[in-house]
Structures are given as C-alpha cells and as structure tokens.
C-alpha cells in the first residue's frame, strides 16, 4: 500500500510566499509605470499633448518638459519671473480689507482675476505657451499694475501671483470644456453654474446626460436627464522612434544653439530690473540672524539651469494624434523627448503646439 504523501507545510509556505512576492512585484511595477510616466518616452509625449489639448493648459504641460528638469517648475517661475515684482516685507502695508473676508475683498479679487483673465486669453492667442518667456514676463508685469490699481497698495507676493495666474488657467480650460452645475454640501446652494464650452460647440454631438438641478418644490438638488453636446478627445502615440547616433549628434548641436542664449539671458534680465543680492537682519528670540536675499543670483541661476545640453543621453521623435470618438483626427503633434538618466522630458525648445489650441 502506498504511503500517504506527507504535507510539507514549510515548502508550501515558501512557494506561497514566492508567489505573493511575485504578484506584489508585478503590482508595484504596474503602479510605478502607470504613475511615473517619465520613464517611457511615448508616455511623456502623450501626457504632454493630452494636458494641452484637453483644456488648452499649456501651463501645466511644462511639468513634463526640460524646463522642470533641474528645478521645480514653481520655483523656476518664482525665481525667473516673479522676483522683480515681489514686495512683501513686513513694512509694506496692504489694503485694509485684505484678510477680512469681506465683500470688498471679494470684489477686489474678482476684479483682478477678471481683468487678468482677459489679458491671459489675449497672451495665449497672440503668443501661445510655447513662448512662455513672453507670456510670463508680460503677465506678471500687468498683474503688478492691476494689483496697485484695484487694491491701492504696493504689496505683492508669490501666492497672490500664482493664485491669479492659475485661476486664469482654470477659467480658460472651463471656457473650452464647459461646466456642469455643482451644488454645495447643503444640496441647495449652486457654487458653479452650467455652461457650454467652445469644444462642445465645435465637436459635440447631442446625447442624454444626467445633470443636477434645483427642484422647485423641495428646493433641493435632484438629478434629471437632458440633452447636451458631448465630445471626447483621445490622444494616441502613433510613432515613437529613437534618433540614430548621427541624428542625435546633429540634434544636440541644434538644441545647444537654441538654449544657450536663453540660459545666458538671466543676468541681463536681472540687471534690467535692478535686482541685487542683499542681506537682512532678522531677530529670532534674543538673537540676530543674517538672512541672504539672493534676488539676482536666483534669477540668473533659474535661466542657467534651463541648459541641459551636457546631460541628454538620447532623443526620440514621437507623433501624437488627437481624435474624436468617430476616429476623425482633429490634431497631429510632433514631439521630441530627451532622455536624461532614467527619465524622459519633452524638449520644449523644439515644439510648436499651436495646433493643439483648437479654439484659436
């Protein structure tokens, strides 16, 4: 009679452990590659195009480019374009209504944002975010003056500047996509009205859509079905081809020629605004501490760090197509992505994204 096979618990535990570990590794790899697009050239190119075409948001698309390689994107904007207008010392008085939450403050903010929105749209239509240097330079110069006109003070900080610009970016996006009516948590206060966007008018087809409305009887939110114009953009990488050694050599020479003058422009820009590196005495408890205010150095360094010519290891040319649900093509974008270390970045110095601003 054959003996019963002995159950080897230790062996099965090892096998099960290996299996679980393998699954965890696969899940980690999937999550890693899904979240961190920078490790695949086609993903970087697709994300870059998708960010722009969906809402005209060329501003945030720069987070996928060489601009963000050597410095955080926000720090680059802060140091390269906001420094000349910052005036936030303790001795600079703000308008009395600032921080009160009053109607007067709300009206002032709305006035600044709406005035700057019109100017932002004008800049996008005239220059486009491919020329971010002109857009940022002109925008913050204008904002500084509008702040003085509306608030009647000389104060300016980077939070105020980012708040205005990013609000304008968001409003512009909504003007393209349209908005749905949104209620507050009380289910009766409308905090955003419904609107039809430019892209809906240009590309939408009527479909039944569930929307929230205010019920006249209960004065509460309810959901109904109504006809709306609906569209959907899909971005697809049709081709992504690595440049040969000879092509790469020629490309890097062209890139260096494009970026050098920009990278070296920081000092002249700083001098134009009269920026200097200074120190300030700051009292902490019973001690005086010397604080460095590196306005000029920060601006010079911000532009200098744009030059990645000594770091690029490879370049791929990607063709990204934007289609509607019926597969009709509304835009085709050529994108060059550069590899530095293990990450890929869009070469923004060699991009013309005007075709992605479909409402222009």
Word description of this protein:
The protein contains 11 helices and 10 strands. The protein has helices at residues 9-35, 41-55, 58-61, 73-82, 103-126, 132-151, 158-177, 198-203, 245-263, 266-273, 295-304; strands spanning 182-183, 190-192, 205-214, 221-230, 234-242, 277-284, 287-294, 314-323, 329-340, 343-346. The protein starts with 8 loop residues before the first helix and ends in a 14-residue tail after the last strand. The strands form 4 sheets. It has a 4-stranded antiparallel sheet with strand order 5-8-9-10, with helices on one face. A two-stranded antiparallel ribbon has the order 1-2. Strand 9 and strand 10 (343-346) form a beta hairpin. Mean pLDDT is 90; it is low at 1-19 and 22-35. With 360 residues, the protein is of the alpha+beta class. Helix 4 packs across helix 11, helix 5 (103-126) packs across helix 7 (158-177) and helix 10 (266-273) packs antiparallel against helix 11 (295-304). It is flat and about 65 Å long.
């Amino acid at each position: 009679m054959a003996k019963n096979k002995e159950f080897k618990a230790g062996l099965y535990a090892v096998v099960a452990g290996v299996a679980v570990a393998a699954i965890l590794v696969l899940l980690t790899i999937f999550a890693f590659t899904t979240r961190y697009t920078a490790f695949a050239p086609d993903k970087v190119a697709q994300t870059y195009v998708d960010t722009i075409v969906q809402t005209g948001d060329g501003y945030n698309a720069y987070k996928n480019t060489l601009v963000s390689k050597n410095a955080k994107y926000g720090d680059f904007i802060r140091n390269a374009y906001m420094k000349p207008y910052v005036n936030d010392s303790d001795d600079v008085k703000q308008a009395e209504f600032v921080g009160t939450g009053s109607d007067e403050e709300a009206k002032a903010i709305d006035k600044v944002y709406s005035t700057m929105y019109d100017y932002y749209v004008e800049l996008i239509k005239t220059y486009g975010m491919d020329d971010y240097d002109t857009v940022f330079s002109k925008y913050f110069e204008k904002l500084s003056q509008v702040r003085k006109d509306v608030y009647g003070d000389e104060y300016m900080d980077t939070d105020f500047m980012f708040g205005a610009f990013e609000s304008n970016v968001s409003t512009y996006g909504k003007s393209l996509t349209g908005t749905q009516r949104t209620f507050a948590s009380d289910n009766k206060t409308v905090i955003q009205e419904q609107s039809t966007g430019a892209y809906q008018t240009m590309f939408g087809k009527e479909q039944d859509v569930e929307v929230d409305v205010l019920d006249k009887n209960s004065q509460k939110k309810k959901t109904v079905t109504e006809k709306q114009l609906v569209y959907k953009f899909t971005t697809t990488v049709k081709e992504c081809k690595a440049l040969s050694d000879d092509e790469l050599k020629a490309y890097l020479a062209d890139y260096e020629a494009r970026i050098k003058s920009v990278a070296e422009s920081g000092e002249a820009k700083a001098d134009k605004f009269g920026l200097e590196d200074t120190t300030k005495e700051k009292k902490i408890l019973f001690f005086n501490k010397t604080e460095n205010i590196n306005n000029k150095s920060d601006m010079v360094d911000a532009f200098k760090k744009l030059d990645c010519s000594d770091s690029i290891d490879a370049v791929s040319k990607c063709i990204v197509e934007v289609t509607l649900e019926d597969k009709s093509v509304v835009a085709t974008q050529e994108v060059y992505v550069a590899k530095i270390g293990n990450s890929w970045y869009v070469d923004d110095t060699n991009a013309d994204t005007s075709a992605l601003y479909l409402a222009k």
